[in-house]
Amino acid sequence: MSFSPLINQLIEALRCLPGVGPKSAQRMAFYLLDREREGGRHLANTLLEAIEKVGHCEQCRNLSETPVCQLCASDSRDRSLLCIVETPADVHAIAQATEYKGLFFVLMGHLSPLDGIGPLDIGLDKLGERLDSGEISEVILATNATVEGEATAHYIAEMAARREGINVSRIAQGVPMGGELEYVNSSTLSRAFLERHRL
Amino acid sequence: MSFSPLINQLIEALRCLPGVGPKSAQRMAFYLLDREREGGRHLANTLLEAIEKVGHCEQCRNLSETPVCQLCASDSRDRSLLCIVETPADVHAIAQATEYKGLFFVLMGHLSPLDGIGPLDIGLDKLGERLDSGEISEVILATNATVEGEATAHYIAEMAARREGINVSRIAQGVPMGGELEYVNSSTLSRAFLERHRL
Ligand SMILES: [Zn+2]
Ligand SMILES: [Zn+2]
After folding, report:
1. Which of A79, B5, B24, B94 is the most exposed place for a label (fewest CB within 10 A)?
2. What is the mean pLDDT of residues B5-24?
3. Beta strand A138-141 with A78-85: parallel, antiparallel or unpaired?
4. How many CB pairs under 8 A join A and B?
5. Could you tell me which residue ranges the Toprim domain spans (chains A, B) (predicted)?
6. What is the pLDDT of residue A2?
7. A34/B69 touch (CB, cutoff 8 Å), yes or no
8. What is the rounded CA–CA span in Å between residue A98 and residue B157?
9. Architecture of domain B5-53
10. What does residue A118 show for φ and ψ, rounded to 5 degrees?
């Protein structure tokens, strides 16, 4: 026996969420239909609206519903500092955990030649223009402490080194090797940020 | 700093899902917007359709997108057996784990006087009519092995005892006390079902 077709479809559809296997998808479907229809309707509509309206900031590539994100548009940030991260979640983690007041650049990934992900796919052409603008005095590399994150940091460090007057730093290895920035606790992340070293 | 308003709203909305806290809601929102927009759109539309079209079976109260559910409409079930469960997930668990070929009746909850949930709220008026129909020869009580589940089973056992010719059984206490039926492993559940005893 199986569920009615629509319930089966809902269980299947819920599995697109990260970390949701068949059992939790089933639990979520029943929960939504049993007792949280209003919340479910709200979730569905919010999700559709976000998917339709949230794009990428023209300047930093972060997720944004406006052409330029709030952070890039802010006049209270130090525009000479540029912190390079892999994902929007990393921007959030750093902004929460540290006193950093500069701008960000979000790669939306990392270099991964085996998967066919090259410099253009992570916006390094745009980053190059940014570095050429003469506005940046320090690039802080805050990619993940993974093999791909390290390789990406190394690649960007070389890009920056070719421009004059730009210091390049890497956040300290307080971040455990192999760890994803998003899941590091705040104090570790904060210290790693303070102890960044010039490359 | 916070995310853009729509992203914040999406993170908030995702928290209506059971077991999803702030951190996983954030992770889900980024994941959907970063790399799973098609899946997200499909999820939203499926959820809206399910919420709109899935109601309750007229006969057993299970979730169903047709007035009478597939199981109640089937002509291959033994219509003299009626298994009483608390939730649609329990129907699924029993149908998967056991050889049971009768019908179900889904309370969509349990008696809970402190929360103001009485007999009418769990459909016992409809169950009474069902018992009066003369069609039922055995009622199998498969409510959870919790205090409320036991009390509900006891209440229904008394209802059935007032009708003539209806045997009442309770699934065996192979189900661990305090455990929720939905999470019991198949073999335990199957044995408990086979070893049900008359009340
Ligand atoms: Zn931006
Ligand atoms: Zn039914």
Report:
1. B5
2. 94
3. parallel
4. 176
5. 80-176
6. 61
7. no
8. 62
9. Orthogonal Bundle (1.10)
10. -105, -175
The fold of the B63-198 domain, in CATH, is Dna Topoisomerase Vi A Subunit; Chain: A, domain 2 (3.40.1360)
- Is B3's Cβ below 8 Å from some Cβ in A? yes
Structure confidence at residue B184 (pLDDT): 76
Asked, colleague to colleague, whether B5-53 and B63-198 share their fold, the answer is no
ipTM, two decimals: 0.76
pLDDT above 80 for B156:
yes
| pLDDT per residue as tens digits for the range B52-87 | 999 999 999 999 999 999 999 999 999 999 999 999
Nearest CA to B112 among B144, B139, B80, B152?
B152
- pLDDT, one tens digit per residue, over A53-69 is 999 999 999 999 999 99
pTM reported for the whole predicted model: 0.76
Provide the token pair at B33. 């917007």
CA-nearest of B198, B120, B64 to A8 is: B64
Domain boundaries, chain B: 5-53, 63-198
What's the pLDDT at A177?
A: 63
> Is the pLDDT reported for residue A130 higher than 60?
yes
d(CA B19, CA B39): 20
Cβ contact, residue pair B13, A46, below 8 Å:
yes
Query: Which of A182-186, B9-13, B117-121 is the least confident region?
Result: A182-186
What is the Cα–Cα distance from B118 to B91, expressed in whole angstroms? 22
Q: DSSP of A116-144, one letter per residue?
A: TB-GGGGTHHHHHHHHHTS--SEEEE---
DSSP for chain A, please give it.
Answer: ----HHHHHHHHHHTTSTT--HHHHHHHHHHHHHH-HHHHHHHHHHHHHHHHH-EE-TTT--EESSSS-HHHH-SSSEEEEEEEESSHHHHHHHHHHS---EEEEE-SS--BGGGTB-GGGGTHHHHHHHHHTS--SEEEE---SSHHHHHHHHHHHHHHHTSTT-EEEE--TTSPTT--GGGS-HHHHHHHHHT-EE-
